[in-house]
Description:
Blueprint: H1 6-45
Amino acid sequence: MFGIDGTILAFIVLAGFSAGAVAYAFLFNRISTEKQVGRRLETIKT
């Protein structure tokens, strides 16, 4: 399959999933922080 061993292909796929999971964790933390800041600003405005 494409001249790549199946084990190496599986390793590449798993490494990609791991990198995606780490990126999602960082982005989720940033998004939740922005939501909290937005809520605080709304309570100050009212």
